[in-house]
Amino acid sequence: MAEDAKLVAQQVLEAQPFSRLLGTRLTRWDAEGITLELDVRADLLQQHGFVHGGVLCYLADNAVTFAAGQVLGTGVLTASVNLHYLRPAKGDLVIARAATQANTSGRAVATVEIYAATGGEEYLCAAGSGTVSAIRAAGAPRG
Amino acid sequence: MAEDAKLVAQQVLEAQPFSRLLGTRLTRWDAEGITLELDVRADLLQQHGFVHGGVLCYLADNAVTFAAGQVLGTGVLTASVNLHYLRPAKGDLVIARAATQANTSGRAVATVEIYAATGGEEYLCAAGSGTVSAIRAAGAPRG
Amino acid sequence: MAEDAKLVAQQVLEAQPFSRLLGTRLTRWDAEGITLELDVRADLLQQHGFVHGGVLCYLADNAVTFAAGQVLGTGVLTASVNLHYLRPAKGDLVIARAATQANTSGRAVATVEIYAATGGEEYLCAAGSGTVSAIRAAGAPRG
Amino acid sequence: MAEDAKLVAQQVLEAQPFSRLLGTRLTRWDAEGITLELDVRADLLQQHGFVHGGVLCYLADNAVTFAAGQVLGTGVLTASVNLHYLRPAKGDLVIARAATQANTSGRAVATVEIYAATGGEEYLCAAGSGTVSAIRAAGAPRG
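ok -> structure tokens follow
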């Protein structure tokens, strides 16, 4: 069941041209939350050689949406995202871990932490959260 | 003077590999704030054909940083960004307009609105803000 | 008309027991936005003698809601608020100025700046924003 | 040790006149985070009989600050708070549970969930987060 849901999530990610452009992978989907990963490439950097904040922000947006999808299903709309940058991101890999913080009547709040890693050694770069709403089918009751 | 500052800002943007990958342009820099623009391309979309929220989030991050740079100078560090998605973004062009909302002792809050446009017709897609800190040179007084 | 809307807003504020406890006044309601004011009292402070951040946060919450009410009407629900504390608040008076930043199909984003004043001399203490939704009457069309 | 830190935290809370006005209690301080509680009173409500959003926002602000204090110590400055209102708060008691989400070099991000309870039955009302910085003593190294 969780395996099926993970496969669906991977297909959704694969169906996002922007996520393919950046090379995002969904590497975890379980009761603890979800993980997205991205290999750091030269064209994802900013002017000082760190991963561009916009890449982290994209990861945060996508990670909170997938995490919320664990409780809301695939028909969701991201309503907001916020991210606090704690340290510049440098390394081979950027990792975003997200999980649902709160969930009520078709709306979820998910938190996300972003790490940079070099050779398996990780450090925290950013933390934030997002709000996600379930889309109701036409005719379905609204909460 | 403002022309010089705009040129410096354009050079900073040009020095960001990720901004070149996405094709971001700085099209306005004046007393009212700054504008970033991006041509919509197939590889910037999500699975339903709208511009990926992560692209808007990247634009918000970059736009608030440049807007804050108008009052803080070029040596800045973005501390946080938040974005509220109001409508899916579809069109030829995405436009982010940002301006400083508040500014005190080396820290600024800037707001940003993001529009999608088709043939010059614009509509609002997202609104948010960010906080940016000035980096002090070693030995310089801290506010 | 604006005078009528201002009176309604003042009645709403007066109907909030918590706003009466704190002594909040609506002092401006016009095309530029709205202003809430609060006299600083000993029981509104924190442990270092500054106005408690929670008082500023309350003001931000209420100010963005009233500002959004200018475009959405009186039947609104505040969905979120965020506030960045820039300087400790000290003085005779705390002033929150809010205005709509963005507005679309029953949802508005409003920004707020909070100032502390002593003898008419103001300084900026905090800046933030909030999102507010219109409540639709049963049977009314949804945007 | 944790007992000592809890006592210090309770003294800080007791030293906040605004927290005494509202009647806030620190009821938990352990490895899982902290809890603040507030008895609902008539003068804490808004115009529809629910607990005023500003009360929840105050609780969020205070709860994230205390939670961050668990990792940063007592000399802290709250930099920002955000709160998503999920359901109106009605009941005898309002409960804010907060914990550190991320922590790095003198800066912490803490999350907070707010519940309303009647006779021991709780439901989730709001969720958010905040950023908190450690204040360094004069002459102390800055991270």
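Residues 137-143 of chain B have pLDDT under 50 and may be disordered.
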